[in-house]
Design goal:
Elements: H1 17-27, E1 29-32, H2 37-54, E2 59-61, E3 70-74, H3 81-86, E4 100-107, E5 110-116, H4 120-135, E6 144-147, E7 153-158, E8 160-161, E9 166-167, H5 187-197, E10 203-205, H6 234-249, E11 253-257, H7 262-265, H8 277-293, E12 299-302, H9 319-330, E13 336-340, H10 353-358, E14 369-374, E15 397-403, H11 419-427, E16 449-454, H12 469-480, H13 486-498, H14 502-524, H15 551-555, E17 561-562, H16 581-586, H17 596-599, E18 602-603, H18 614-637, H19 645-677
Parallel strand pairs: 1-2, 1-3, 3-5, 7-10, 7-16, 10-11, 11-12, 12-13, 13-14, 14-15, 15-16
Antiparallel strand pairs: 4-5, 4-6, 8-9, 17-18
Helix pairs in contact: 2-4, 8-9, 12-13, 13-14, 14-18, 18-19
The structure holds alpha-D-glucopyranuronic acid.
The site of alpha-D-glucopyranuronic acid has 11 residues, from loops.
C-alpha cells in the first residue's frame, strides 16, 4: 500500500559521499531506550531512514555498543548512563516535555550523538529533527541543538465527514479515515502520524466541525446531512481506541468535534440545555466513558450556533454556559474544550460579530476552555486584516485557527504557498498588551496553541497537489518555531522533497514565495476585496462560489465607488482595534493599500499614493496577477528533466489550469467592475 501514496518530505535518499563517513560513524549503531510506545516508534524511524541514507542497515542495540567507534544514543537521562554522564546536570530538567537536545559528544573514546529529552515525546521530535538534518546533508560532527516548541498545543483539524469519507473543502479525494472499518487499521494512518510527528504536531481532531449539517452550497438535501455526531456513540468510541494507539506512538493526542445537541441525539434526554443538571451529568458520563477507553484523549472541538449547528442559543444560554458545561465533564480527566468563535449572521457586517459576542465574555470561561479564533474576521480570505479578538481577551485561553487547505487560494489546483500569509499574520502588531503584542504572542499559554484546517486525502499526493504538501510542512514548522523565516522553512521542504539540486531549490523557492501575492492580485485585485474568486470546476467536488447576487454585500460597488465602509461611519470594525492600529485603518490616508477597500468605500477615481485611481489599480492588479501566474508556470517548466516526470507533469498540468482560471476570472471581474464604474482602462485592456 505504501506505493499508493507519496513519501512527501520523509524520503531519505542516499547521502553524498563526503558526508557518508561521518554519518556512518555516529548513526550506523543506535542504542535506543527500551520502554515506551514512543521509543518503539523511534526505532521504526531509524530502521526506515538509515538504510536509505547510508545504503546499509542500522544496527539497533539494547545496551551501549562498546566495541564500535561511535553510536547514536536516544533516551532520557534516566534511561541510560551515556546520556546522564555526557549531558550536564539540569540541561534536560530545564526543557518542556516536548523539548529536546541533540549533541555530538565523546564518550569513553567513542564518537557519539545524543538525542535526549525529559519525556518520550521529546525523543520522537528530537529523532525527527536529527533525521531532517541528515536528510538535508547537514554536518553533525559538532552539533549542539536545543529546541522547545513555541506553543503547547499544535493541532490539526480535519474537516472529514465520518462514514461518508468526504472532506469539506478537501481537494485530495476521499477521507483517509475509514471509520466504518475501525478498529481495523490502515498503513496510511501510521504514515500520516509519522508526517505529523516529524513536524512536532501533537493533536489531531479527527472529524469535521460540521457534525450534523453542511452549511450551504449543495442543492441535494440528503448530501447536506452529516453524521459526525455519531462518533460519540459507545460502539464508535470503542472503535477509536485502535486509531488512538497509532497516534499515541508518535506523541499525538486525538480529539473529536462534537455536536452540542448530543445529549438529545445520542442520549435519551429531551433537552441539551447546558444548565440542565441531567445534561451536565450526561456529558460527565460520556467523558468518563471516553477516558476509560482512551486515557490520553485530548478533548472536544465545538462549532456551536454557527452556520446551522446547534448551540447554547437554542436555550437562550450564552457561549460561556455552553462551553463550560462540556468543560466540567472533561476537567477531571485533564481534557480541554476548543470552542470556536466563528459566528456570524446577526450583524449586517459579519466582521464585527465575533468581537461583539466574545469580548464581553472574557474571564468567564472555565480554565480548560480555549476559544479558537480564525486569523481574520471573515473566513480565510487570501488576505484580510487580523481578528480584533487577539489581545482583547486577556483572561481567556486562545487558539489561532489557520487554514492549510486552499479553500480560497486555488482549491488544490493553484500552487499557492500560505507561508508568507501566515508570516504576515504572525508578525502583525496589535498594540494590545500581553507579553508581546504581535499576533503570534497571544497563544503561548499551556492551554493555548495554533490549529490548522487541513485537507489530507486518499490522493497519491496527500494534499491534492504535490507543491501544496509544502503548506502542511510549513504550518508545522512555523508553529514549532515562529521565528523561522519563510525562506528557511521553504528551503527545508524543497531539499527534503526534491533533493539538493541548486536549480530546483532556487526555482521552487521562487515559485512558492511569490505565489501568494500573485494569487491575491488575480483573485481579489489586491486592494482588500474579499469573497469573490473563481476556482474553476475541473478538480472540484465541493467549493463555495458565491453567486454574483451575493457579491455586492462583499465589495460594496455602486456607480460612484467601491469598498466596504468599516470605519466609524460604517460598521466600525476598524474601531475594534486598539490605537494606533484603529486610527491607521480608520484614515484613508494611512490605511495600507492592501486593506483599503476592506475598510473604505471610495470613489472609483479616488487617487492612490502614486496617482493611480482605484479602478485603474484594480484593473492593473488583476492583469499583473495573471502575468505573474504565467511567469511562475514558466519557471516550473524549466524543471523538466530535473525532477521525476510524475511530479513534474502533475504540477505542470495544474499550472496550466491555474493560469486559465486566473485569466477567465480577470475578464469576468474587470468587466463586472467596468459595468458599475464605466471607466475604461488606461492601457486599453478593459473593457
Ligand atoms: C467556511 C467554510 C465552511 C466551514 C466554515 C467553518 O465558511 O466554507 O465549509 O464549515 O468555514 O469554518 O466552520
Amino acid at each position: 500500500p505504501r506505493n499508493q501514496y507519496d513519501d512527501c518530505w520523509l524520503r531519505y535518499d542516499r547521502v553524498s559521499d563526503d558526508r557518508r563517513e561521518s554519518y556512518r560513524r555516529r548513526i550506523k549503531h543506535a542504542y535506543v531506550a527500551e520502554e515506551s510506545p514512543e521509543c518503539s516508534a523511534v526505532r521504526d524511524e531509524l530502521r526506515e531512514a538509515i538504510p536509505g541514507l547510508l545504503g546499509e542497515d542500522v544496527h539497533l542495540w539494547q545496551h551501549r555498543p562498546e566495541t564500535v567507534d561511535g553510536f547514536l544514543a536516544i533516551g532520557t537521562p534516566g534511561d541510560m548512563e551515556v546520556i546522564k554522564e555526557s549531558i550536564p546536570d539540569g540541561a534536560v530538567d530545564d526543557l518542556d516535555d516536548d523539548g529536546y537536545l541533540i549533541r555530538s559528544v565523546e564518550y569513553e573514546g567513542q564518537d557519539c550523538l545524543v538525542v535526549t529529552s525529559g519525556a518520550d515525546q521529546g525523543l520522537v521530535y528530537g529523532t525527527f529533527h536529527l533525521l531532517r538534518l541528515l536528510n538535508m546533508g547537514e554536518p553533525i560532527d559538532e552539533i549542539d541543538v536545543r529546541e522547545e516548541p513555541a506553543y503547547a498545543n499544535r493541532v490539526i483539524n480535519h474537516w472529514d465527514n465520518p462514514f461518508r469519507r468526504t472532506v469539506e473543502r478537501g481537494y485530495a479525494g476521499e477521507s483517509i479515515f475509514d471509520f466504518d472499518r475501525l478498529p481495523d487499521l490502515r498503513d496510511r494512518y501510521e504514515d500520516y502520524a509519522r508526517l505529523l510527528a516529524s513536524l512536532g504536531i501533537n493533536g489531531v481532531v479527527l472529524n469535521n466541525v460540521n457534525t450534523e449539517y453542511y452549511p450551504r452550497g449543495s442543492t441535494n438535501e440528503a448530501s447536506q446531512q452529516f453524521d459526525g455526531w455519531r462518533l460519540l456513540e459507545s460502539r464508535r468510541l470503542e472503535d477509536l481506541t485502535s486509531l488512538a494507539s497509532v497516534f499515541r506512538r508518535y506523541g499525538i493526542q486525538i480529539y473529536l468535534s462534537v455536536n452540542f445537541g448530543a445529549p438529545k441525539r445520542i442520549g435519551d434526554l429531551d433537552t441539551f440545555d447546558p444548565l440542565d443538571e441531567d445534561v451536565r451529568q450526561w456529558w460527565r458520563e460520556k467523558a468518563d466513558e471516553i477516558y476509560d477507553l482512551i486515557p490520553d484523549f485530548g478533548g472536544f472541538l465545538v462549532k456551536a450556533d454557527s452556520e446551522g449547528q446547534d448551540g447554547p442559543y437554542n436555550y437562550d444560554r450564552d457561549h460561556v454556559e455552553g462551553a463550560n458545561a462540556l468543560a466540567q465533564a472533561l476537567e477531571p480527566h485533564g481534557g480541554r474544550v476548543w470552542w470556536r468563535a466563528f459566528v456570524y449572521g446577526s450583524h449586517e457586517d459579519r466582521a464585527i460579530q465575533a468581537y461583539d459576542t466574545f469580548e464581553p465574555l472574557d474571564g468567564d470561561f472555565a480554565e480548560n476552555v480555549t476559544v479558537q479564533i480564525k486569523n481574520g474576521p471573515i473566513d480565510f480570505q487570501p488576505r484580510e486584516p487580523v481578528s480584533t479578538l487577539f489581545g482583547a481577551m486577556p483572561e481567556t485561553d486562545l487558539g489561532l485557527e489557520l487554514q492549510i487547505t486552499g479553500e480560497y487560494t486555488g482549491q488544490g489546483v493553484h500552487a499557492t504557498s500560505h507561508l508568507p500569509m501566515w508570516k504576515e499574520i504572525f508578525e502583525f502588531d496589535t498594540h494590545a498588551d500581553r507579553d508581546g503584542s504581535r499576533v503570534q504572542d497571544f497563544f503561548r499559554g499551556d492551554g493555548e496553541g495554533v490549529v490548522g484546517v487541513t485537507s489530507i486525502g486518499e490522493d497519491h499526493t496527500w494534499t491534492g497537489h504535490y507543491l501544496m504538501q509544502s503548506n502542511l510542512y510549513a504550518f508545522g514548522r512555523l508553529i514549532w518555531d515562529p521565528d523561522l523565516d519563510a525562506e528557511t522553512i521553504t528551503d527545508e521542504w524543497i531539499t527534503q522533497t526534491f533533493g539538493a539540486d541548486e536549480a530546483v531549490l532556487d526555482t521552487v523557492r521562487e515559485i512558492l514565495l511569490d505565489s501568494w501575492e500573485a494569487c491575491i492580485d488575480y483573485e481579489t485585485g489586491g486592494l482588500g476585496l474579499i469573497h469573490m474568486m473563481h476556482n474553476g470546476q475541473e478538480y472540484l467536488e465541493n467549493h463555495y462560489y458565491p453567486a454574483p447576487e451575493e457579491w455586492p454585500g462583499y465589495h460594496g460597488a455602486t456607480e460612484e465607488g467601491i469598498g466596504y465602509d468599516r470605519t466609524a461611519t460604517g460598521s466600525g470594525y476598524a474601531q475594534q482595534f486598539r490605537d494606533p492600529v484603529a486610527s491607521r485603518f480608520e484614515d484613508v490616508e494611512t490605511c495600507p493599500e492592501k486593506h483599503l477597500l476592506f475598510f473604505h468605500h471610495l470613489p472609483w477615481d479616488h487617487e492612490l499614493e502614486d496617482g493611480t485611481t482605484v479602478i485603474q489599480r484594480l484593473y492593473d492588479n488583476f492583469y499583473d496577477g495573471v502575468e505573474e501566474a504565467e511567469r511562475l508556470r514558466d519557471l516550473w517548466m524549466t524543471l523538466e528533466g530535473k525532477i521525476d516526470d510524475r511530479r513534474f507533469e502533475h504540477v505542470a498540468t495544474r499550472f496550466d489550469e491555474q493560469v486559465h482560471q486566473a485569466e477567465k476570472w480577470r475578464d469576468v471581474i474587470t468587466g463586472y467592475f467596468y459595468d458599475f464604474a464605466e471607466i475604461e482602462g488606461e492601457k486599453g485592456r478593459v473593457p
